[in-house]
Structures are given as C-alpha cells and as structure tokens.
What we know:
Helix content is 48%, strand content 16%. It is an alpha+beta fold. A hairpin with a 2-residue loop joins strand 4 and strand 5 (166-177). Helix 1 (7-37) runs parallel beside helix 3 and helix 7 (255-291) packs antiparallel against helix 8 (305-331).
Amino acid sequence: MDFAHSPRTTELLERLTAFQEREIRPREEPYHRELLARTDPWTSPPPAIEELKAMAREEGLWNLFLPPGSELAGQPLGAGLTNVEYAPLAEQMGRSLISSEVCNCNAPDTGNMEVLLHFGSDAQRERWLAPLLDGRIRSAFCMTEPDVASSDATNMQATATLDGDEVVLNGRKWWSTGIGHPACEVLIFMGLTDPNADRYHQHSMVLVPLPTPGVTVERMLSTMGFLDAPGGHGEVSFTDVRLPASAIIGGPGQAFAIAQARLGPGRIHHCMRLIGLAELALQLACVRAGERVAFGKPLANLGGNRERIADARIAIDQARLRVLHAAWLIDTGSQDALGAVSQIKVAVPNMAQRVVDMAIQLHGGAGLSDDLPLGAAWTIARALRLADGPDEVHRGVVARLELARHGIGKWSA
Length: 413
Ligand SMILES: Cc1cc2nc3c(=O)[nH]c(=O)nc-3n(C[C@H](O)[C@H](O)[C@H](O)COP(=O)(O)OP(=O)(O)OC[C@H]3O[C@@H](n4cnc5c(N)ncnc54)[C@H](O)[C@@H]3O)c2cc1C
C-alpha cells in the first residue's frame, strides 16, 4: 500500500490550501461572529458562504468527495478521487469550520447525495441529487428518535406505512442535522413499514420535500450550547404526512441496507476532517506555547507541556495512518474495511477530543472563549463519539470480528 499523495491530490491540495488562505481565512471569523450575534441564526446564512461557494466551484474545488465512476445522466461527477486520494483534502478542509460546506463536501449532504447516487431512481436523482450537487439546496437525514435507543437502527418506531400508491409517515425524530438551514428542501426519513418482515427488512427510507403538510420542526437543539447554525440539529414531528410511494428510496424494506451503505463513507469522511481539526488545535497550542510567558519562561518550557505537544503529534500521526489504511481497504474492496472503519470511528474522535482539550488547557481561559475555535472543535469531536453510532457500538463490531478470528462467537467460521 502506498499513501504518498497522487499527482492529482498534490495539485488539488495546493490549490485548496491557497484558496483557504486567500479567500476563506479572512472571511471565516467574521462569518462566525455574524451568526453568533443573530437572535435567529436560521433565517438566512451570512452571504459570505454563498460567495465562497461560487468561488470554490469556479476553482474546481467542488464535490471532491465523489469516488471514481460517479456519474449522473452519463456525465462524470466530482473529482473522481479514491478515498486515499481524498483523505488529505478532507483533512485540509477539516482545519476550518466552514471549508467543507464551501466546497460542497459537508455532512450530512455528502452522505445523502451518495444515497441518491447509489439507490435513487432516475426521477429522484433528477429532482434532488442535481440541486444538491449544485449546492443550491441542503438536506437532512432523519433516523434517530427521542423515544428509542437509536444506536440500534432496527429499533426505529416512526412509521412509513403503504396506503395504496401512497406512503404515510408518522412519528418523531431528533438530531436531524441540517434541518434548520433555510435552504434545506429535502430530508430522508427512516420509518417502519413491515413489522412482520425480518428485522433487517422492516424499515424504508422516504424522500420528504420541505415544506410538506404534517412535517413540523418542533425545536432546534444545541450541542453543548453550540447551535451549529445555520444548519443546526432539529427535533421534527411527522403527522399523517402523505407522499407518493415513489418517494421511497430503493423500494420498501431497504432502509437498513441503505443506512449501512450511507454511514460507511460518512464515517470515514468525519474521521478525515477530524484529523485536520486536531492539527489546527495542535498548531494553535504550539504558537501559544511559544509566545506566552509565565514564571519567566515560555509555556512550552513549563511543566510537561513539551511532552503533551509530542504526545499530540504522535497521536495525530497514528490516527492519520489508521484512517489512510481504512481508506485503502475501502478502495480495494477488502472485507476488512468494516472493522477498520469501526476502529477509526472510535480512535479518531477520542484522539481529537484529547488533542483539542490539551490545546484549550494551554490557552488558559482564552481556550474556552469564543475568540478561538477550540470550544467548537472540542464539541465537534465529542459529538462524533455519538453521531454515526456511539463508541461502544463500534467497539462491539471490532470485538466481534476479533473474537471470530479466534473461533469465538456465533460469527466464527
Ligand atoms: C451532533 C449530533 C448530530 C447528529 N446528527 C444526526 C443526524 O443527522 N441524523 C440522525 O438520524 N441522527 C443524528 N444524530 C444522532 C446519533 O446518531 C445518535 O445520538 C446515536 O446513534 C446514539 O443514539 P441514541 O442517542 O438514541 O443513544 P442510545 O441508543 O440510547 O445509546 C445511549 C448509550 O448507550 C450505550 N450503548 C448503546 N449501545 C451499546 C452497546 N452495544 N454496547 C455498550 N453500550 C451501548 C452507549 O454509551 C450510548 O451512548 C446526531 C447526534 C449528535 C450528537
């Protein structure tokens, strides 16, 4: 395996980094300040983001996440990069809180676009995939429910009931990321269709246009005080929502298979971005440790700070190699990809949380203020120990595979 940057990655990375320095960096802090100052941050995103999106598209820094062979109506899509090629670019985008959206590579839209690409009908792709790829609309993914343990995707109780040539949705979802965005025009709803089918074929995924009668955003949630506007995370009720049965993706009962496929790339992309976020935190920590003086010495020369910085560097580099290895396993179609993705889904958010925490500590009170992105970075890392499945579920997968290697458990050969 070879993790050296390909010529295409090298070229894109240079252009992406230059674009971030020249266009994104000067606008990022004012963008966050403007959102923070608003009483209702969900009315419209600050104009900077749309200006930046237009520039990124012009520069060819757009839809970089799409793998080779992605096409719509016979037209190739995106940069056609393998996961190993995309990883350094996602990492670079992860060093900023807005770059992924600027380059149309942000969650949850990327995962939703991949669902439409791989499982959508021609009509569904034309209606929803095309505007998502253009960055004209945003989307949300509504699986998690407040009333059931949603770590287990087969638990969902909200219903998607077939009634003639219609499907009727009822139930309540929460943590629907992106639903607050004024441009959010479609959501993917996961609901119970046939409770008598085997547990992996009971649920369906349905495309729901916004607005649709019966769909109500009951409230927006904060993540440890952060609103994550303008996308945010909503609690959403569905009351007798009627749609044509053609809104079901891939046919009734296919939700579990689609969810597994959707979360695979989504999880590894989150990990790639988190490596960048950890790099940003370490960079800020080093600058602070070099510049600030206490007890007659730079912070870098006090206590165990050098060791902390060294440990952060070691942890980030280890995590990056694990992510690249998982990416390579996916690219080569290896069966080991499943376990590798679960491993990094545990390792990387925990690593990023520790590195950001170290950077906060080195900054003293400033580390917890809005003046720096460290509080937001810590919250993102912490949230990703739950979003896309909690640590424990991924550890369960890793342990099951490991035990099976030794002939233990019902999964053994
Ligand atoms: C910021 C953020 C964004 C999110 N975005 C979305 C989104 O866009 N769409 C969406 O549908 N959902 C989203 N989620 C929800 C997320 O996927 C769920 O919170 C997660 O899957 C866990 O489900 P739950 O909250 O119901 O926890 P539960 O299932 O109730 O689990 C609670 C705890 O039980 C323990 N546990 C569970 N299973 C096991 C096990 N097998 N072994 C040991 N312990 C276990 C773990 O400690 C776990 O944290 C988001 C969450 C957050 C925080």
